[in-house]
TrEMBL record:
PROSITE patterns: B12_BINDING (PS51332), RADICAL_SAM (PS51918). Keywords: Iron, Iron-sulfur, Metal-binding, Methyltransferase, S-adenosyl-L-methionine, Transferase. This is Cobalamin-binding protein. GO terms for molecular function: catalytic activity; cobalamin binding; iron-sulfur cluster binding; metal ion binding.
């Protein structure tokens, strides 16, 4: 079969600070190609809808799969599915990915027959089985993870081994368009999949059933050797949870003489527990480290069940700085913040040397916050669920909330971007421009055209074609089994030694590591 894999357009935040290659879609495309199909990829972050229609006309795919990893992309995907069904009525259309796995039936009902099925869970595990069923005319509901308006197939399954799935990087048509900060261009890579923690605002653990699986250091090094980009973003939800695994990858990289620059995300307590791992990585190319603090006080940390003490967070920041790493922090702005709270956060952010990003508390399907807060939503427009819009009631009038939010973001933008950033990174910028890479330099002045309180407020007034269903009343006690896409498999699904498993349990339960 001829298969077209589609990634939707960029979201608000990614229009400025980063544009990452669609690694999940590349993995699905790779699995489909391994199953014997002729596959193409189009990424609408880097191409246009006109490019999409041109490719569909030329390629004439038998099946089109769409990446539904982000809730805010649902309307665009549904529009494409509807128009594609009208123009090409025989093509088989399906959607997979993180977000749609939690809302499969809602999306199918909104599609009004234009979508054949949703493929829940790890698409690279089951896309071959689905395409085989379509090709042979057998019942697609026999395929694990499939959902149609007529029913639901067996539960989703995991790939047998992360070593057996390789992304089809060669199918991307504009690899020079992907970057994160000064890593321009940048490729993405996966060392491990899943997260053993259970933060209330996150759906990584509910998607993967609190599993944590790793690829072998040898296979990771093979992939790094094949990647042409000098910058690498490690996409793991929490990097180097398992100290031995992180060290083994570093040893393989040193042995082969691989020279790359790396950016990753981790937790403060993991950084402090595995200091030697991060020290070694700082010596082989790690330059950026993202730490999701989420809050700057103990009350906020408790709310998100982040369960890392404030002292631990600050200690981790100091240690990362001591390694010469550029540190980026995420703070979640709660709708309850007033002007004084915004001002206090601004002052704190200005007092530290690190890069700070402010996002907005957003309940997503699959999170505990969703089940507790969904009835209070002030909008059911999928497009606003992008962590940059307020979708819950705000203490301040909404126009004032956006004014304070953007003012805070603007202060941080002035601190780290624009002319000052160019001054600090002039050498890097010149080298990038010499090599034809303009992503980083262009982003330095894009902030005001994207982050604008009047534009954000106007987004709430746009007519919405697709609305979330009205949510049921919140429940006092949540049954976690109702949250999972991949059901929890317990200890055997986590590639952790006993000491690390104990560490995770203690920090997950709020005890000292």
């Amino acid at each position: 079969m001829k298969v077209l894999a589609v990634h939707p357009s960029a979201l608000m935040y990614t229009k400025v600070f980063l544009r990452l290659e669609p690694l999940g879609l590349e993995l699905v495309a790779g699995a489909a190609r391994n199953a014997g199909h002729d596959v193409r990829i189009i990424d609408l972050q880097a191409e246009t809808h006109e490019d999409y229609w041109k490719l569909v006309e030329e390629f004439q795919p038998d099946a089109i799969c769409y990446s539904g990893s982000y809730l805010a992309n649902v309307p665009e995907i549904l529009d494409l599915c509807r128009e594609t069904r009208y123009r090409f009525p025989l093509v088989f259309q399906f959607i997979g990915g993180h977000s749609v796995s939690f809302i499969a039936r809602d999306v199918l009902e909104l599609s009004e027959g234009s979508v054949n099925c949703i493929l829940k869970g790890e698409g690279d595990a089951t896309v071959g089985l689905l395409l085989e069923a379509v090709q042979n005319g057998t019942n697609i509901l026999d395929v694990p993870g499939t959902v149609t308006l007529d029913g639901e197939g067996p539960p989703p399954i995991f790939v047998k081994s992360l070593d057996e799935v390789r992304p089809a990087r060669d199918l991307l048509r504009h690899r020079n368009k992907y970057f994160i900060g000064t890593l321009d261009p940048a490729a993405s890579i996966e060392f491990a999949r899943g997260c053993p923690w259970d933060c209330t605002f996150c759906s990584a653990w509910t998607f993967y059933g609190r599993s944590y699986r790793t690829a072998s250091p040898q296979v990771i090094a093979d992939e790094l050797e094949e990647i042409k980009e000098p910058g690498i973003f490690i996409v793991d939800d929490v990097a180097f949870v398992h100290e031995e695994h992180g060290m083994a990858i570093a040893d393989e990289i040193k042995k082969r003489g691989i020279k790359k620059e790396y950016y990753l995300e981790t937790r403060a307590d993991v950084l402090l527990r595995n200091k030697e791992v991060f020290k070694v990585w700082s010596e082989i190319g790690l330059s950026y480290i993202f730490i999701g603090m989420e809050a700057v006080d103990e009350e906020g940390l408790k709310q998100f069940r982040k369960r890392v003490s404030l002292d631990k967070n600050f200690e981790a920041l100091e240690y990362a700085r001591s390694l010469g790493l550029i540190v980026a922090i995420n703070i979640i702005a709660d709708p309850s913040w007033d002007r004084a709270r915004f001002e206090a956060v601004r002052q704190w952010c200005l007092e530290i040397p690190d890069i700070v990003n402010i996002s907005v508390t957003t309940p997503y399907p699959g999170t505990e916050i969703w089940h507790k807060e969904a009835r209070r939503l002030t909008t059911r427009d999928y497009r606003l669920f992008d962590i940059q819009h307020a979708v819950l009631p705000t203490t301040l009038p909404l126009p004032e909330f956006y004014e304070e939010l953007v003012k805070t973001q603007q202060v941080l933008n002035t601190k780290h971007m624009g002319w000052q950033a160019l001054k600090d990174t002039a050498g890097i910028a010149v080298n990038l421009l010499k090599n034809g890479q303009t992503n980083f330099v262009k982003m330095l002045w894009k902030f005001n055209s994207v982050f604008n309180p009047e534009l954000q407020l106007a987004d709430h007034q746009r007519p919405a074609r697709y609305l979330m269903p009205v949510q049921p009343d919140a429940v006092d006690k949540i049954d976690r089994n109702d949250l999972y896409v991949h059901g929890p498999g317990g200890r055997k699904t986590r590639a952790l030694d006993d000491a690390t498993e104990t560490f995770v349990d203690k920090t997950r339960m709020g005890e000292e590591a």
